[in-house]
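Researcher: Next sequence.
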Amino acid sequence: MNYARVLRGAAGVAGFLAVAELVGLSGLVDDRFLPRMSVVLGAAAGLVADPDFLADAGATLAVWALGLLLTVALAVPAGLLLGTLPRAEAAVRPLIEFLRPIPSVAVIPLAILLFSDNLHLKLAVIVYAASWPVLINTIYGLKDVDPLAKETLRSFGFGPIPVLARVALPSAAPFIATGIRVASGIAVILAISAELMAGGSEGVGVYITEAASGSRIDLMLAATLWAGLFGLVADAVMVAVERRLFRWHHVRTGGAR
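Model: Next structure:
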């Protein structure tokens, strides 16, 4: 672990919180609309013992995990297929480049019209948004495979599937893992965004909306802080797993995050 980097990050967060607290104390902003940071942090700590918030957080994390699992199950095989069939990728590439820049939040109203079930709605927008980094990284990972290694295996009589399983997939695995890590953060964002826009009966986004409608800005911001923390923890876990599984790749590339 890069402790110096962690300390610098912690110092940056502490500095931001201190500045936000000073702005609140200065009276430049009406605390009815933007409570002091100490009040927000206190409310965030209190949410740990709030059964309603814990239930909403559990619902959001469950949707996030299921959406990420579906994303991996769909995007990785699609990326492997396109990465091993250049003509198929060339045919599909214009469609990918057309759909990928569309803001993911913009598809939520369409999903609301298409899906009557709230769970299916959230899963659909998560899979749509989170699939792109996994798909693209899988394709590029296969393109980065050493062609000499593939030709060597072919010369020994191995067919396309064994070459993919023995050489291409292991070599592309670090790229796929990076795509999944990026998709993890996107899945958190889309899960909460869908809850904010589509409503429903549970979820952090629903909790934020209800807190705002009740003029509990402190609880709204506290829940938002927890949403950011979920994304931060998910990314940290993914980085740790990635570094542990693919230590050889980081040593080879000289990468240290």
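Model: The mean pLDDT is 86. The two ends are 8 Å apart (CA to CA).
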